[in-house]
């Protein structure tokens, strides 16, 4: 077997904790690019303030959600069809990323006769201290407008009959784990807010500062980002401003990562040139995250036919079925008493896992996705249903019939 399991009750509890910590007047949107499975969206919809979308496909996915929320549409390279569809669906705001995109959106809004709020996505000058492995701002990127283009962008929006400036948007650091750096980033962006508002006329005052997401997950230790500390710092900082903006976070990974698990069966074990290998069902075509980020993912060993694993630990390379040496989950995994048929579970698989993977490579079957709930129905016996911590009620997708 190779399958994904998502604990929806844990997802809801974590999202509620994140939401409760926010200061009054600060909003939480979910960036659905992290995981846009319908069950994930339906679980988060009653908790978050809205969804952040980045394509026409995500617009349609959000439209299927049982609860309608405010949406924003972001991302470079928006098609005219995406912009038109966003206006037709009534998105709350569109994050415009270039002068040309403003002109195209203004033309579409005029033709449809629809008013549309916009955020100007800014790629500001940032100190080197805010550089990360995945820079989204502060350097040459496809994302947003340079600060020198802001006066022209503001003028284009003001000249449009149907576009209205709602706020500014900056997504600067992605997958970073330091609360101190993120507090410093909030301070800098609030300073930028005042500078950018000064470029506007006396009768124009946007309401929102969208500070993006980028809250990281530590895949190698149990340490979590100190979200309450960031919220407390932001609350103090906003209270010090005479006319603070309404701040909005767009968080993906930090909301959904913790609820997901990828389980694989050990197919073979071997030794090659002095190194031990576990060949597992599935691979990075299902769960690309470890290879994409270049880390050794944590692994939980579930002996299938015995109560526990004994003996001295050995170091294994845990790999999948693909015909490439890059199909690796972990190169430094210490495990005891591994047998063919045992299960390995990779936690922290709820974000940027299956949804970014090349699932059709080598034409292997796609994995079933099991969504765990607190329902009392018996779960199908897939090797995990009798293990501690796995709820009994399951629903599945990806071609596997749903449990009623």
TrEMBL record:
Boundaries of every Orn/DAP/Arg decarboxylase 2 C-terminal domain copy: 258-350
PROSITE patterns, per database record: ODR_DC_2_2 (PS00879)
Span list, region Disordered: 382-404
GO MF terms, alphabetically ordered: diaminopimelate decarboxylase activity
Needed co-factor(s): pyridoxal 5'-phosphate
GO biological process: lysine biosynthetic process via diaminopimelate; polyamine biosynthetic process
Entry keyword annotation includes Transmembrane helix: no
Domain Orn/DAP/Arg decarboxylase 2 N-terminal: 9-257
Domain of life, source organism: Bacteria
Keywords: Pyridoxal phosphate
Active-site residue list: 323
Positions of modified residues (N6-(pyridoxal phosphate)lysine): 33
Biased composition (Polar residues): 395-404
InterPro entries per UniProt: Ala_racemase/Decarboxylase_C, De-COase2_C, De-COase2_CS, De-COase2_N, Orn/DAP/Arg_de-COase, Orn_de-COase, PLP-binding_barrel
Family note: Belongs to the Orn/Lys/Arg decarboxylase class-II family.
Protein name: Type III PLP-dependent enzyme
Lineage, uppermost ranks: Bacteria, Pseudomonadati, Pseudomonadota, Gammaproteobacteria, Oceanospirillales
């Amino acid at each position: 077997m190779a399958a994904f399991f998502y604990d929806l009750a844990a997802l809801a509890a974590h999202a509620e904790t994140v939401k409760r910590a926010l200061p009054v007047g600060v909003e939480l949107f979910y960036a659905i690019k992290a995981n846009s499975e319908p069950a994930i969206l339906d679980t988060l919809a009653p908790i978050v303030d809205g969804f952040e979308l980045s394509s026409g496909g995500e617009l349609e996915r959000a439209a299927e959600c049982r609860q309608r929320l405010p949406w924003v549409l972001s991302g470079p390279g928006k098609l005219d069809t995406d912009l038109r569809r966003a206006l037709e669906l009534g998105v709350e705001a569109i994050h415009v990323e270039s002068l040309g995109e403003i002109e195209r959106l203004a033309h579409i809004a005029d033709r449809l006769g629809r008013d549309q709020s916009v955020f100007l996505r800014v790629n500001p000058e940032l100190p080197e201290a805010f550089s990360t492995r995945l820079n989204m701002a502060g350097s040459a990127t496809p994302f947003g407008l340079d600060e020198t283009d802001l006066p022209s962008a503001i003028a284009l929006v003001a000249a449009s009959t149907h576009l209205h400036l709602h706020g500014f948007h900056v997504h600067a650091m992605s997958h970073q784990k330091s609360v101190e750096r993120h507090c410093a980033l909030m301070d800098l962006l609030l300073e930028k807010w005042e500078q950018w508002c000064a470029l506007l006329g006396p009768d124009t005052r946007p309401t929102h500062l969208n500070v993006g997401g980028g809250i990281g997950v530590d895949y190698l230790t149990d340490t979590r980002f100190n979200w309450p500390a960031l919220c407390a710092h932001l609350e103090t900082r906003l209270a010090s401003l005479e006319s603070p903006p309404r701040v909005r976070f767009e968080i993906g990974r930090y909301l959904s990562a913790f609820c997901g698990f990828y389980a694989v069966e050990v197919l073979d074990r071997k030794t090659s040139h002095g190194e031990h290998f576990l060949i597992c069902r599935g691979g990075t075509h299902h769960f690309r995250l470890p290879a994409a980020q270049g880390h050794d993912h944590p692994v939980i060993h579930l002996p299938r036919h015995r109560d526990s694993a004994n003996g001295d630990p050995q170091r294994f390379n845990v790999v999948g079925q693909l015909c490439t040496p890059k199909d690796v989950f972990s190169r430094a995994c210490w495990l005891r008493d591994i047998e063919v048929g045992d299960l390995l579970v990779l936690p922290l698989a709820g974000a940027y896992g299956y949804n970014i993977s090349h699932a059709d490579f080598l034409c292997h079957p796609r994995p079933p996705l099991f969504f765990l709930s607190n329902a009392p129905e018996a779960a199908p016996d897939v090797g995990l249903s009798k293990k501690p911590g796995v709820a009994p009620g399951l629903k599945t997708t990806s071609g596997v019939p749903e449990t009623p």
